[in-house]
Amino acid sequence: MSTQSHAEHVNVDHDEIAKFEQLASKWWDRNSEFKPLHDINPLRVGFIDQIARLVDKQVLDVGCGGGILSESMAQRGATVMGIDMGEAPLKVAKLHGLESGVQVNYKQIPVEELAAQQPESFDVVTCMEMLEHVPDPSSIVRACAQLVKPGGYVFFSTLNRNPKAYLFAIMGAEQILKLVPKGTHDFQKFIRPSELGNWIRKSGLQSLEMTGLVYNPLTKAYRLNPKDVDVNYMIATRKPAE
Questions:
Q1: How far is the C-alpha of 16 from the C-alpha of 242, rounded, in Å?
Q2: Which run of H or E residues covers position 142?
Q3: Which of 5, 19, 46, 229 sits 20 to 30 Å CA-CA off 212?
């Protein structure tokens, strides 16, 4: 297979990559378009750490972007590799790592390619806010399952697809509250928990726990609520031990 034809078959939406490339310089600005990511990060890393105990674990962060979650997991004592297909966000992540002194190994590589190279290499795999930005999310789920060791944990977060999610994530977050730039999300790519659950089962993972990330526009604060997965939600899964 030629390099060109291989590139065409990589599970990447180049328009999505370009969108995040343009915003790369703002990734660590807590008052920029990435403020919501900074706001939910303590909740995400707390959820992951509570279930998987990050200290001394080998962790892979799939779709790491500018490294917000990657650095937080490294600060909790994990050895972290972050992968992304966006060159600019990875440069920002590496630069911020030099400034913060937090060590993360960043690579520009498709997750499917890494799964072929390093199967069952990680204790924990995280894939946050990425599945709704790729052409074939089920392929990402399969690759994450391949990459985790037996007995290890895989975490996914994405957006539910229903009228409430459209109202909150598109109308509310993008157009009214302007929490994120217009066009950040494509409602058709949102994923119902039943769909994600099906891919998880087919990839050989077991679902452990699901929780919602709920935003209160009055307090401007996020909290976890397992009873409300209507908009943003996270799923913890485990690969059965052999």
A1: 38
A2: helix 137-147
A3: 19
Neighbours of 166 (CB within 10 A): 17
* Binding site as annotated, residues: 44, 63, 84, 128
C-alpha distance across the termini of the chain, in Å: 35
Backbone angles phi, psi at 160, to 5 degrees: -70, 155
Sign of the CA dihedral running 170, 210, 104, 124? negative
pLDDT (tens digit, 9 = 90+) per residue, 24-60? 778 899 988 788 889 999 999 999 999 999 999 999 9
Task: State residue 182 phi and psi, 5-degree precision.
Answer: -60, 140
Pick the more confident residue, 121 or 34. Answer: 121
Q: How many CA atoms lie less than 13 Å away from 59 in the CB half-sphere?
A: 30
Give the model confidence (pLDDT) of 180-197 as tens digits: 666 667 888 999 999 999
CA distances from 47 to 41, 149, 156, 211 (A): 10, 20, 11, 9
Q: Tell me which DSSP letter residue 133 carries.
A: G
- Paired with 82 in beta bridges are 61, 106
What is the rounded distance in angstroms from the CA atom of residue 6 to the CA atom of residue 154? Answer: 27
Binding-site residues for S-adenosyl-L-methionine = 44, 63, 84, 128
**DSSP state letters, 163-202:** HHHIIIIIIIIIIIS-SS-TTS--GGG---HHHHHHHHHH
State the pLDDT at residue 166: 80
- Using an 8 Å Cβ cutoff, are 235 and 203 in contact? no
Kindly report which listed range (122-126, 149-153, 161-165) carries the lowest average pLDDT score: 161-165
Nearest C-alpha neighbor of 47 from the set 205, 143, 181, 155: 155
